[in-house]
Amino acid sequence: MTEKVKPIMKVALVHDYIKEYGGAERVLEALHEVFPNAPVYTSVYLPKFLGPHRERFRNWDIRTSWLQYMPINYKLISPFRLISPFIFKQFDLSEYDVVIVSATGAYFPNTVKTKRSIARSDLSAVRQTIHICYCHTPPRYLYGYATARDWKKNKVFAILGAVANHFLRIVDFNASKNVDYYIANSQEVAARIKKFYRRESVVIYPPVDGAFSPQRLGTRSRKKTSTKPYFLTGGRLARAKHVDLIIQACREMNIPLKVFGRGFAGYEENIKSQISKVKSWKCEFLGEVTDEEKFRLMRDAKAFLFAAEDEDSGITPVEAMAVGTPVIAYRSGGIVEKIIEGKTGLFFDELTISCLQKAIKRFQTMKFDPKDCVLQAQRFSKKKFISEIVRFVNVCYHSNTDIGYNKYSL
After folding, report:
1. 265 lies in which domain range?
2. Angle CA(305)–CA(212)–CA(318) in degrees, nearest 5?
3. Count of Cβ atoms closer than 10 Å to residue 119 Cβ
């Protein structure tokens, strides 16, 4: 039986922005499932950009900042990171017992007002709000990790960005002190939190939902004999995911490939251009798809290809394993914690076409048991995520002192 949150607890959820649907939004969804009455505070909510996923948030209590009412606000999210502390400081969450922030970094949403910040001079007069941050990663652009935009390509922007980042790192570090407890989405991110914020954290992996079905696994096995095998890649299509490298590698090997997802910062156009160059090669760009269609594509694929650089955690490859499909992935970041090499997939060690091709050729000589993939993926189920979140929040809430993390053990 899943542990339940104490009903006396008044909870608020905070999220950077709701404009796209990826791993961070899946975490937010699962948190909202645990706390269905909790309002969600965010900078902007733009359902028109959510494609087939817009219905997921329709009946939520979503409370936005003044940025919601700005013209062309969808183009302002990135530049407004410079003043994000001022955006989130407008939210007064002092009425809540627990605030759970789903965030990329500290300074963006972790500047909300809580009982601690408004009563710091006399903490004994009021029980402080428990401030928990589920950290997807410290901001990649601040700390030298691969990002969706190649902003360093322009020398002027590179110089200005370096100066701005110096001061933003100071703001980010100071904002990290507002957090009582950190949850990291992988051991990789836990190490980043330790390095950049000098804080301990507990690892609770993001949830994989709706894929652990014996019927789906069985259907995969039957269809594999009657359909032409193809490789699959997709998800959030950004520069750091290196989908272009996957396309080039498969094109040179003349391997059928399907690509799904939505692109960012002009990257989708780059991908479509690559695919259209060779008419004789069997490659399809499918765009953004529903979860049902995604799992069908994964189930019928020969393998899921993943070339993300400095990956924070990696949900999509786990979803592929959840329907019995092995993964070929670049050995980088949090995805290393998800795949059992030689049993549920393979790694390649260099972001080069030749290195990926060698991994694909090796893969084609091997056999993988779909059941091994499913068993591994079950370690990251939504049921387990919810159980661990509930347990962690309860422990934090019922402790009047800083428990550190020694009283919480997964």
Report:
1. 214-379
2. 25
3. 16
User: Directed axis angle between helix 243-253 and helix 267-277, to 10°?
Assistant: 10
User: Residue 253: is its pLDDT beyond 90?
Assistant: yes
Q: Is residue 4 part of a domain?
A: no
Question: Could you give the number of structural domains in the chain?
Answer: 2
Is a pLDDT exceeding 80 seen at residue 215?
no
Identify whether residues 230 and 321 lie together within a single domain. Answer: yes
In this structure, the answer to whether residues 151 and 239 fall within a common structural domain is no
Q: Are residues 140 and 259 in the same domain?
A: no
Does 256 share its domain with 296? yes
- What the block records as the tokens of 292 is 């049902």
Helices (H) and strands (E) in the chain, counts: 13, 13
Residues 213/220, Cβ–Cβ less than 8 Å: no
Q: Quick one: 219 and 163 in the same domain?
A: no
Bridge partners of 231, per DSSP, are: 257, 303
DSSP state for residue 315 in the 8-state scheme? S
Asked whether residue 59 falls in the same domain as residue 198, the answer is yes
**Distance between CA atoms of 172 and 141, rounded to whole angstroms?**
12
Q: What whole-number distance in Å separates Cα of residue 196 and Cα of residue 107?
A: 13
List pLDDT tens digits, range 294-345: 999 999 999 999 999 999 999 999 999 999 999 999 999 999 999 999 999 9
